[in-house]
Amino acid sequence: MASTKSFLQLGVASNLLATLTELGYEKPTPIQMQSIPALLSGHDIIAQAQTGTGKTAAFALAILTQLDLNKLKPQALILTPTRELAIQVAEAFQSYAKHLPNFHVIPIYGGQSYTIQLKALKRGAQVVIGTPGRIMDHLRRKTLITSALKTLVIDEADEMLKMGFIDDVDWILEQISQQHQIALFSATMPLPIQKIAQKYLHNPLTIQIQSNTKTVAAIQQFYTLVSNQYKLEALTRFLEIEDFEAALIFVRTKLETINLAEKLGARGYHVMALNGDIKQSERERIITKLKNGQLDLVVATDVAARGIDIERMSYVINYDLPSDSESYIHRIGRTGRAGREGKALLFISPREIQSLKYIERSIGQQITEIKPPSANNITEKRIQQLMEKIIAVINKGELEPYYFSVEQIMKQYNYNALDIAAALSYLTQQKNPIQIEEKSFIDKNEHLPSTNKKNHSKNKSRPRKFTRKKFNKNSN
């Protein structure tokens, strides 16, 4: 049966299989099952699939299988609607090609220095990934040479249309005269997309994959507005208030997995970092600890968390904004699996509110806003925990040796038992004081857009779906 096929049976190159195992890929998704063999056989394809179905790996693995690594010329060109998706797809290619010698990929997009891009293109790469505007610029300058091009991928074609890029895509396709394969991926197929397909694709195979939104809908989803400088404090408050068995915290970079894990560890949490630099043996050790309850928190990057399916994983926190809605779906899909309850929290800064709206449109549902826990919430929780500790100690019946000390303090210093009990409670809470300061988690200087749905729908300007600033710094 087709459903039982492995990546090897689909035709994926043997030198990619070990990497897929390291990344936690167990079996192909439906879109990979259908797309990979079609692409490897040279067909043009139209793949209608929602985000979160594994389409990036579908075209990336097929492209990598067919590359001539001895040629440093662009053999594959991937068009993406946003710079953030271009970066994410480039990172995916890098991770899949971890064991491929002499592999090079270049993401090119608006807002990045031309000098950097020109140097990279001059050095050469087998795969180029970019946004339509900047790809057009390089084609006009003749700095992007397509003479060796074998495959062109149009990713998220309907988003290209929504953002006004479809004419740019048309122009790019017209410039490539030699025979090449085209793969068009789109969640929906509006008429302008159909016209592009009819104009440029030759006898395409059509692939339709059912949406993942049913799985997403089963997970309780929340977002909280918090400025970047207050994220750590907001995170620790949520971790203290929420009832969960184990939590997966997603960040953007390898470096941040280490930094955040160290900060949470210093606050008393059992936490470890999981990123692409972690060896397979260490990864397995971390997963085992999560399963048996020796570990409560893991701070991870997108790629490192693939394949994690742990019954205790009841909470996913998007500490950093995901690159796109597909990443969001993959992330929160680590919880709420096989009918189990799951909860997901997304940290959004005021400047990223449009990204939230894009995610909501992509998954077809609204995400509920929740405020960071207040000082009163924390106080109530800590008092309750202290009471439970005290009652547990009383119930153990081992207080007899301590009565003498309390009686001595009462006689010698004339303190009552209530004062002494309160002082002892205070001593136990030195690292976790009962009272904390109330504060705002939004920077006064940071503009907070209205979250009113109607107001957003009236905004005719093109939204910046995912902010580059926060993603490119220290990105790995």
How would you describe the overall organization of this protein?
The chain is an alpha/beta fold. The chain folds into three domains: 2-211, 3-Layer(aba) Sandwich (Rossmann fold); 214-374 and 442-472, 3-Layer(aba) Sandwich (Rossmann fold), CATH 3.40.50; 375-428, no CATH class. 45% of the residues lie in helices and 13% in strands. The chain has helices at 7-10, 14-22, 30-40, 55-66, 83-96, 114-123, 132-141, 157-162, 166-175, 191-200, 213-217, 231-241, 254-266, 280-292, 325-332, 353-363, 375-396, 400-413, 417-428, 453-458, 469-472, and strands at 45-48, 76-79, 105-108, 127-130, 151-154, 181-186, 205-208, 220-225, 246-250, 271-274, 297-300, 313-318, 343-348, 368-369. The strands form two sheets. It has a seven-stranded parallel sheet, with helices on both faces. A seven-stranded parallel sheet has the order 10-11-9-12-13-8-14. Helix 3 runs parallel beside helix 4 (55-66) and helix 9 runs parallel beside helix 10 (191-200). It is elongated.
- Radius of gyration based on Cα positions: 26 Å
- The largest beta-sheet arranges its strands as 3-4-2-5-6-1-7
What is the C-level CATH assignment of the largest domain? Answer: Alpha Beta
Tell me about the largest β-sheet.
7 strands, parallel
What is the helical fraction, as a range of percent?
Answer: 40-55%
Total helical elements: 21
Mean pLDDT: 86
CATH architecture of the largest domain: 3-Layer(aba) Sandwich
Tally of strands: 14
Indicate the CATH topology of the largest domain.
Rossmann fold
